[in-house]
Specification:
Layout lengths: L1 H4 L4 H10 L6 H16 L3 H20 L1 H9 L5 H21 L2 H16 L4 H22 L2 H17 L6 H20 L2 H15 L14 H22 L2 H17 L4 H18 L2 H16 L8 H19 L4 H14 L5 H21 L2 H15 L6 H22 L2 H17 L7 H19 L2 H17 L7 H19 L3 H15 L8 H15 L4 H19 L1 H17 L3 H20 L4 H8 L2 H14 L3 H20 L7 H6 L1 H21 L14
Helix pairs in contact: 2-5, 3-4, 4-5, 6-7, 6-8, 7-8, 8-9, 8-10, 9-10, 10-11, 10-12, 11-12, 12-13, 13-14, 14-15, 14-16, 15-16, 16-17, 16-18, 17-18, 18-19, 18-20, 19-20, 20-21, 20-22, 21-22, 22-23, 22-24, 23-24, 24-25, 24-26, 25-26, 26-27, 26-28, 27-28, 28-29, 28-31, 29-30, 29-31, 29-32, ...
């Protein structure tokens, strides 16, 4: 074996193998494999690659005979000129396909590559032709998801890897292309071992110390970045397949090294920004989100307006802005909506990218709807999520995600409109999403939690006891699955508490309320002081404390409601309305009239803002339906507290609100309309101004609040 490894030329190696046939036997091959494994364990990948190459060469000799195998390595091809023409034609077609993205160009490239491969005579020719054909098949499969193309590509590129000596720079291309093929095989037919092999092949290259020898094929410059980026992408894909956080942490490290080697290019920064935003899901560290935003903004600034990469980078930045709002309270939701809208318009209709951007737009519209209760945002979110879920041919994982998001928007719409049929549709979407999600997926607990929330709402609106029991059971499963360190712990605990409270109100039992209060206290401890979610969780705690009614609960409930109303102004107006009305009704029952007046005043202010921010009359009418009741409740509280003048003002303010909404004048929030149609916004303002003088003189004014605010 030592003599075989040290042969000066292939002719000498052929003579040795022909005279020592046992060199191709199992014992000899096992010896080479053991040497290769030992070298790998010592991180000597150069030596290990040499052993691997010679082992694969002997395996081919065993199958085809040494004469043919070594002949391919040394013989000349009499038709070399014609073969080179075919290879060049194939490369030209691949270049055209890269620019146009047309399927016809890819089919032409595959055809030319197959014709070139059929004329291969020598091993070097086979390396070139099989490499071109494998890449062409992968590009075609990447667009249409063909498992047959991917399978052929893996076989061809595996052959290229085996035929390429480790001492050549072409070996690096062989590794990169084979790793790409293996990653795509996993995406197409869920082949987990393919990811493991791809990661191992790439690690052998990128974990080497860069040698001083200039002839060594260690990748440098752009090729080094490609290696680092491909390894990081494979590890990221494996994280989503297995849910192992260490893979995503490693992916971030390799993406960061790619940025360092690439001079902070738009591509490298974009990859790092996306990985950091995903890593936040594992760590819950806002620092990762902030770094992600910095990288993505810099990446977008360096991206040409006509680049096909621009829509994805717009969408990634929008997603990070939405996450920062949810987890940090930094409000850049209008920018996020604008970014997603631009990304959706720029992506080709019917493409996976278009569906992904529709999905992102729907999610950020829901996020923006929450603080101000803008029903136009809610309806548009439902439509955007429907576009994503019904787009042609989404991948299995994407289909589950889009159905889950569609169910969420339907559920919130059902909650706002008290629509039991809409809640039933939401349950169906969430059930389909859960069924499509694998048991080992990190998304399964949250999707089960969303299904449980939809079941709870359906039980509430339709009086379905079975739905409520199933909701409580699912919430308990999710609570046991999600650890205390997860960034989703507070959400899971809050949802579980809501299910327990609903069950307690139906059965009259006290134990579920005790458990719900404990869950909400833990959720609040896990919620940042400036999080927009804190107000809603405090309101829920107040509801449960009122339901329990133990000694000391009343004082804590008042503190929870008061803090909830304070935090919800102006960042979560629907929560302020709900908390204010519940607090006021409870205070009225206790005859704490001054406290009731304080609470109902919060509700009155919330209704004012909710009505004012709707751009359409039907949307405003949803909130107006509650306006008269809230005004009357506030007036009663002030009268009972000995302030009849304030009671009259509350009643008159309610009447003024109804008249103002009927006239649809300048108290409408026009900021978002200006972003999409500045001319229409201007004409609206001019028309409204003609009525403003009459309205201003006719409507009674509240001296404390100063009447309706000006248009913005």
């Amino acid at each position: 074996m030592d003599r075989f490894l040290s042969c000066a030329d292939w002719a000498g190696a052929e003579r040795l193998v022909a005279s020592r046939p046992w060199l191709t036997g199992d014992k000899a091959l096992a010896l080479l494999a053991s040497w290769e494994e030992e070298a790998r364990s010592d991180a000597d990948h150069t030596t290990a690659d040499t052993y691997e190459y010679h082992r694969l060469l002997l395996e081919r000799c065993r199958g085809s005979g040494p004469t043919r195998v070594f002949g391919e390595l040394t013989a000349a091809d009499p038709a070399q000129e014609r073969w080179e023409e075919l290879v060049q034609a194939a490369q030209d077609a691949l270049d055209r396909a890269a620019e146009s993205g047309h399927r016809d160009d890819l089919d032409t490239a595959v055809d030319h590559c197959e014709r070139a491969a059929d004329r291969c005579f020598t091993a070097p020719q086979r390396v070139v032709a099989f490499g071109h054909l494998g890449v062409a098949l992968l590009r075609r499969a990447d667009g249409v998801g063909s498992a047959e193309d991917v399978g052929r590509a893996v076989g061809l590129l595996d052959t290229v890897y085996a035929l390429t000596p480790p001492s050549t720079s072409e070996r690096l291309d062989a590794v990169t292309n084979l790793a790409w093929a293996l990653e795509l095989r996993h995406r197409v037919d869920r082949h987990p071992a393919a990811l493991d092999r791809a990661a191992e092949l790439l690690r052998r290259v990128v974990e080497r110390e860069e040698p001083a020898d200039p002839d060594d094929p260690w990748p440098s410059g752009a090729r080094n970045v490609d290696m680092l980026t491909t390894l990081a992408s494979v590890l990221r894909t494996r994280y989503f397949a297995t849910g192992t956080p260490a893979d995503l942490a490693d992916a971030v490290v390799w993406f960061e090294r790619a940025v360092q080697h690439d001079g902070r290019s738009a591509r490298a920064l974009g990859n790092l920004g996306v990985a950091l935003s995903e890593f936040f899901g594992c760590t819950g560290s806002v620092r990762d989100l902030r770094r992600a935003e910095e990288c993505l903004r810099e990446s977008l600034a360096g991206t040409d307006a006509r680049s096909p990469e621009r829509p994805a980078r717009l969408a990634h930045l929008a997603s990070v802005l939405a996450d920062r709002y949810v987890h940090e309270g930094r409000n850049a939701l209008d920018e996020a909506v604008a970014l997603y809208t631009e990304a959706e318009r720029a992506a080709p209709p019917g493409s996976p990218e278009h569906a992904a951007h529709s999905s992102g737009l729907g999610t950020v519209l829901l996020t923006r709807h929450e603080p101000q209760g803008d029903l136009a945002d809610l309806r548009e979110a439902v439509r955007a999520h429907e576009r994503a879920a019904t787009s042609p041919g989404p991948e299995r994982d994407d289909e589950a995600l889009y159905l889950d998001q569609w169910g969420t928007s339907l559920r919130l719409s059902a909650r706002r409109l008290d629509d039991a049929a809409e809640a039933h549709r939401a349950v169906g979407m969430h059930e389909r999403a859960v069924a499509l999600t694998g048991d080992g997926s990190p998304d399964l607990p949250l999707r089960r939690g969303n299904l449980a929330a939809a079941l709870r709402l359906h039980a509430e609106l339709a009086g379905d006891r079975a739905s409520l029991e199933r909701s409580v059971e699912l919430h308990e499963q999710v609570r046991r699955t999600v650890g205390e360190e997860s960034p989703y712990t507070a959400t899971v605990l809050t949802n579980h508490a809501a299910a327990l409270r609903a069950a307690a109100r139906r059965t009259g039992q006290r134990a579920p309320v005790d458990e719900a209060i404990g869950a909400l206290r833990r959720a609040l401890r896990a919620t940042a002081p400036d999080s927009p979610e804190r107000a809603g969780r405090l309101s829920e705690l107040g509801h449960n404390l009122v339901d329990r009614g133990q000694s000391g609960d009343a004082a804590e409930a008042v503190r929870a409601y008061r803090e909830s109303c304070r935090l919800a102004d102006p960042d979560n107006v629907p929560v302020r309305l709900v908390a204010g009305r519940a607090w006021g009704a409870w205070a009225t029952r206790r005859e704490a009239h001054e406290e009731a007046a304080e609470a109902f005043d919060h509700a009155v202010d919330a209704v004012d803002l909710l009505v004012r921010t709707q751009l359409t009359r039907p949307a405003a009418e949803i909130w107006l339906a509650r306006a008269t009741e809230v005004a009357a409740e506030a007036a009663h509280a002030h009268a009972a507290a000995g302030a009849p003048a304030r009671a009259v003002l509350r009643l008159e303010r309610g009447r003024a609100r109804l008249l103002s909404a009927a006239l649809r004048t300048t108290d409408t929030d026009l900021r978002r309309l200006r972003c999409t149609d500045a001319d229409l916004a201007g004409r609206f303002r001019r028309a409204a101004a003609r009525l403003h003088g009459l309205e201003h003189a006719a409507l009674p004014r509240d001296p404390e609040h100063g009447g309706p605010p000006p248009a913005r």
